[in-house]
Amino acid sequence: MMDKVATPDYIRRHDRDRTFPHELYQAWVELGLLSMPFPEAYGGLGGNAIDMMIIAEEIARKGYDFYASYAAGVFTAHMLLQKADEPQKRTWLPRFFAGEIKLSTSMSEPDAGSDVGALRTSAVRDGEHWIINGQKLWATGAGVKDNVIALYVKTDANAHYRNGISLFLVDNDAPGMELRKLEMLGRSSVGTYEIFFNDVRVPPERLVGGENQGWGCLLAGLQYERLTSAAGYYGCSQTIIDSALQYAQERKQFGRPIGTNQAIAHMFADMQTEVDAARLLTWRAAWLIANGKDALREISMAKLFGSETYVKVAAAAMQIMGGYGYNMEFDMQRLFRDSRSVTIGAGTSQMQRNLIAALMGLKVR
Ligand SMILES: Cc1cc2nc3c(=O)[nH]c(=O)nc-3n(C[C@H](O)[C@H](O)[C@H](O)COP(=O)(O)OP(=O)(O)OC[C@H]3O[C@@H](n4cnc5c(N)ncnc54)[C@H](O)[C@@H]3O)c2cc1C
Questions:
Q1: Is the C-beta atom of 188 inside 6 A of ligand 1?
Q2: Are 20 and 66 in contact (CB under 8 A)?
């Protein structure tokens, strides 16, 4: 299915025109790829984190940009599975599985990136309703048609962030919202959005997890976000290796394929070894999650190593392809551009290292 819909021309066109791959997304819906890793009670197909990994690798084979829309939806839905109440789960999850809505998550702000607890966008009560004002940044896929945004806002200005943030589900076309698709180095199709909120009115049933209980939702969401992200990284990395390998076997200089130079051949040996290691780290984390165990350390390691490997592999593959790798008419430049985001998004490499070290007992300042 992926090969039939997401042809090389289809991918290039959406990257160039900065348009969302609606046909491909619809095909995922029809195949049940969105509903696979969710319980049957809410309309899912009853799979687990390991099923999600298998799907993720295949989708990510076409590049991280398209994959980002699958990942953002699935990890947001997974957070709802953990934190929403029964009526909310029965309302939102089946609609997401059926493709009636898409889901995204918006935490980051101009002054709240790694330090997400510093967010300032606020919601204040107005009778039963809430009124949201402020600005969000870098929200993947938030401006796509029928997107519902899982939005983290301050609801108690005087409380510590652990006790003063709440989560709301907000339609991206609610009155008072303005979304702008940002010019980024890569990931142009699904896109990254800036959002302005000007007296956006939200009904009480859109509050998830309880008033001032948003921090717990955020932490729960981050774990599955990083696992989902890591699963995409090695799918993309494998595509990069495969296309550079084909090139190295065909491209001749000095009368023989460039891949017969030991300097190039060893680059492939290293790349494949590291991508396999990234895959195994992620599988370990998914196995722990699928078996109901805590996996914060393992997920952070998989996210850190997988993202850094992906960036490294993309840079090496561009070197192997010489001028053709750097040329806009070939696909490697897109794979390279998309790769560069992954040690920043879903928590930077530095923040993953801080977390892993903290879990080892070292309080990094
Ligand atoms: C393509 C893309 C998609 C994204 N999608 C989303 C999304 O869907 N939803 C959303 O809410 N956000 C999203 N983000 C935002 C992302 O989570 C943030 O960019 C990220 O958390 C880093 O924040 P920042 O960019 O403000 O950098 P900063 O936090 O300002 O960090 C700048 C640098 O300082 C380092 N640094 C900061 N603090 C420390 C520290 N304590 N120790 C060591 N180093 C530190 C960082 O590692 C980084 O290298 C996305 C970002 C990108 C690039």
A1: no
A2: no
pLDDT tens, residue by residue, 235-279: 999 999 999 999 999 999 999 999 999 999 999 999 999 999 999
| Ligand 1 site, residue 144, Cβ cutoff 6 A | no
> Whose CA is closest to 320, among 248, 269, 237?
248
Instruction: Give the residue among 108, 96, 42 at the shortest CA–CA distance from 70.
Output: 96
Is the CB of 354 inside a 6 Å radius of any atom of ligand 1? yes
Helix (H, G, I), strand (E, B) or coil at 328: coil
Which amino acid is residue 284, in one-letter code?
A: R
pLDDT score for 257: 98
Residue 191 predicted with pLDDT over 80: yes
Which of the four pLDDT bands, split at 50, 70 and 90, describes residue 364? confident
Spatial neighbors of 138 by CB under 8 A, at least 6 apart, are 108, 182, 192, 193, 194, 345
Is 106's C-beta closer than 6 angstroms to any atom of ligand 1? Answer: yes
- For atom 2 of ligand 1, the residue with the nearest CA is 345
CA–CA separation, 129 and 186 (whole Å): 38
227-241: b or e for each residue (b if 16 or more CB lie within 10 Å)?
bbbbbbbbbbbbbbb
Give yes or no for residue 192 CB within 6 A of ligand 1.
Answer: yes
Q: How far is CA 102 from CA 59, 106, 169, 172, in A?
A: 17, 13, 12, 10
Q: Indicate if ligand 1 lies below 6 Å from the C-beta of 275.
A: no
The residue whose CB lies within 8 Å of the most ligand 1 atoms, and thus the one to mutate among 18, 105, 114, is 114
Q: Is the pLDDT of residue 294 over 80?
A: yes
Q: Ligand 1 pocket test: which of 226, 348, 355 has the largest number of ligand atoms within 8 Å of its C-beta?
A: 348
For range 5-32, the mean pLDDT: 97
Domains and CATH numbers, the chain: 2-100 (1.10.540.10), 104-212 (2.40.110.10), 216-359 (1.20.140.10)
Q: Model pTM?
A: 0.97
- pLDDT exceeding 70 applies to what percent of the chain? 100
pLDDT average, residue stretch 56-76: 96
What is the reported pLDDT for 5?
95
pLDDT at position 363, please? 84
Instruction: Using alpha carbons, select from 189, 214, 191 the residue that is nearest to residue 18.
Output: 189
